[in-house]
Amino acid sequence: MKNLLCIYGKSQYDSTRLFLEEMMSAIAEQGISVDYLDCYDEEQFARQRQELANKKFDAIFSINGMVLEQGSSLGNLILQQPTVYCTMLMDHPMIHHERMNNAYPYILVLSPDYHHVEYLEQYYPNIWCEGFLAHGGNRAETIVPYRERSINVSFMGSYVDPAQVQKKIQEYPPQMRDLLQATARKMIEDTSLILEDALRQVLHAQGIQGKINGFSGIMAEFRDVDRYVRSFFRDKAVRTLVESGIAVDVYGDGWDRMQVNNQDMLRIHERLDFKQSLEVVADSKISLNVMPWFKSGSHDRVYTAMLCGSVCVTDASDYLLEQCQDEKEIFYYQLDNLDGLPELVNRILADDTKAEIIAQAGFDLAQKKHTWGQRGIEVLEYLRTVERLRNENV
């Protein structure tokens, strides 16, 4: 492995660009030559594409399967056998169903949840290799000493009104609507259920047998269930704190559409880009997280909170429980017992000494094991492994 092409795309708050920059910097420090192609800078893209047209790479890396969609002219240009194409997914593979069906023979897909890896293995036989890659975290440039922080509880992320998602679900044809609603109910009633298992149970109960080779296509139609359940619990977690009298500072799109009792406790701020949001986390005593239904994985909000010296309060996953000890480096709450969340937050805020110790322990853990730089090294290890496999097949 000598040279790598990194493809930049654009995310909602431009977070993935920063993730990639830290990962590629760590890879370059290992002696790998890294070139970049920025698909969202028209002036740079035209020049870079021309420069790279005739250049060969040992591997290509992107986030969320960029250039794998059907009819991608860029994909046709740069996916030249036997180059390894490696991508890290930030969401469930069903969100990228079309891209995951690409027939290119050397695709390596890394997912932030072990269940996603299993899903890819089972339902996308065209994909050459799969692997697990946890999210990493980012550190702010300015870290405010814990006791001097001006924000008690912050939440970073957009707000989607679950009632609006439910309204969209109501517009489906009756049979499909009933399947969507039944699957969502199962996941809300049993918060340990992943979407594919909930859907299987619903299909079985209704006597519908989804063939294995068609299940991923069915799942791709259930994106609104995932969106609904995620928005339902994000709304409920923040609402529970606010309506108990705990102020929550929220940063992201859509929060002006949230109506709650104690409206003044919902402190809505202007939209920030990702780097700006890091400074807010580094001025927050508690950084609240609601996992995006990764039941065996991680999210960058967790490790970013730790790296910014904030106490992370989050629902758990099997992976996080293995990595972070409750009330040692992190605090966990239960989605099926959100009534206990205000008491937990008040307990943390009432004891700066203990909170400071836990914030420091979280920082030490994340700095050692969970930066995006470390994820870059893990990507390089994957690439070196599959390069050997590729060379055996060429």
Keywords:
394 residues; six-stranded parallel β-sheet; 16 helices; globular
- One letter per element, helices H and strands E, the order comes to EHEHEHEHEHEEHHHHHEEHEHEHEHHH
The whole-number mean of residue pLDDT values reads 94
Structural class: alpha/beta
Fraction in helix: 40-55%
Report on the biggest sheet.
6 strands, parallel
DSSP, total strands: 12
Strand content: 5-15%
Shape: globular
* Total helical segments: 16
Record the strand order, biggest sheet. Answer: 2-1-3-4-5-6
Radius of gyration: 22 Å
Describe the secondary structure blueprint for this structure.
Elements (H helix, E strand, L loop, with lengths): L2 E6 L6 H14 L4 E6 L3 H11 L6 E5 L9 H6 L5 E5 L8 H4 L6 E5 L2 H10 L5 E4 L18 E6 L5 H9 L3 H16 L5 H11 L6 H9 L2 H21 L4 E4 L14 E4 L4 H8 L2 E6 L10 H8 L3 E5 L2 H6 L7 E3 L7 H9 L2 H18 L2 H22 L1
Parallel strand pairs: 1-2, 1-3, 3-4, 4-5, 5-6, 7-8, 7-10, 8-9, 10-11, 11-12
